[in-house]
Amino acid sequence: MPLRSGINATEFTPATYREQRLYAEYHSLLHYVNRADPLGSAPADPARDPHYNAWETAIRNWLMKKESETGVHVSTEAPPVEYDDLHISANTPTVLITQPFSDIELSTRALDVEVNAVSPLGIRRVEFYLDGFFLGSDVSEPYSLHTTIPNTVSRGYHTLKAVAFDDIDNRGAGTIGIRVANEAVMGHLEVLDPKNGQTIERQQEAYSVVVTLEKPDEYRSVTLWAESPVTRTKTEIATKTNPTSPFITFSWPFSEDGDWVLSATAIPKDGSERLETAGVLVHVVPESSLNTLPPLSPFPI
Hints:
Elements lengths: L21 E2 L28 H19 L3 E2 L18 E6 L4 E3 L3 E9 L6 E6 L2 E6 L4 E6 L7 E10 L5 E10 L8 E5 L5 E4 L3 E8 L5 E9 L6 E8 L5 E7 L4 E11 L6 E2 L3 E7 L15
């Protein structure tokens, strides 16, 4: 996980550098009320009251007990006033797709992409997408991708995008349109759940991935894959043989938080070309109890 600065995020701060924190002030009554003058101003030095330390200790013990019971951490220091000054528009990478040319018609499904990408903070990696679905990535110049458009992608016009990231996840993108001339293979294979771009909160040890397959009895097997766009490591999650239902469920054990690409392949029984999907990009994040906090106090009495 990236190091976080502890200052306020802005609209440009990527999700990987964001963290929800709960700030609250918890003190005993003696911190705010002078027993000798209860209707007057708060005491300038509440610790002068002989009972103050004991009352404050009781409050701190109560707060630690509540944190232990609920898993909610409360920061009692003053919230930050500074704002993120590294994730700013001036540091956004500039991306230009130099190959293929915009509006080119591809007679085959072979796809060669070349990109120029520059950034004030350098380029860490470039990711490639077709209609928002992940195709691959590259981590070294010249940034390029040599791949085959999945055979489930339809004939016609599609949007090709290259997204460049620097070392602290500032990102910039370039897009062009391309035309695929040949028809998709017969049959339909799709990762139905999760959706492309979905954020998954780690509430359990695994996530149920649903793949839909038309005429499943015509296929020998269906396989689910998971890939890290950062390390470009692709792992087989599971294979289901001789499917009978058009909806096939896989249990995907979470390995770690971050971005993951899910895809599926299906092998026909007649030996014809296998079906393959484009990559569905999902964002796995830690479970956040802050989403269900009461609006005023995380520890109602």
